[in-house]
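Notes to self, Flavin reductase:
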Amino acid sequence: MTSSADDPIDADADALRRLLRHQASTVTVVTAPGAPPVGFTATSFTSVSLTPPIVSFCLNLGSSTWPTLAQARHVAVHLLAHGQHKLAQIFATSGIDRFAAPTRWRPGPNGLPILDGALAWLACRVVDRVVVGDHAVVLAEPELLRHADVGSPLLYHRGRYAGLADAPDGTARRAAA
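result:
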């Protein structure tokens, strides 16, 4: 008997990873104050609740960033703009000073490192951390935010960075409802 694309397979870690490559995600960089400050690239950012406002992101417990994030009272979540793939790569690379040039940033509220040029950012108060398997789900309440009125997000899909397709008139295409 041959296998077809419609046949289900066991949902092990490798199969799940392959399946999730089909999900396009907004690329975010999460930063936290520290000596030195820390940050990492995440595609797991999502809204959890509007009342009260709560967002979440996930971080591997083995990450070099986790010890600082495990104690941080505040974090900044930056939604990267299309064209910021090099910044995403910097914050996805281990063993380097992610805040050294060419990264442009400034101290923000509660000492949060705020990255220049992001499409949007949220300054958040951490409200909970839930350890699930080899990751922690961090729940945070946005206290301040800033967003651009123009621009499009940097997306991650099938293992590479992408952007929204533009219509011939230069506007982003909208999905049919």
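- Helices lie at 13-20, 66-69, 85-92.
- The chain has a mean pLDDT of 88.
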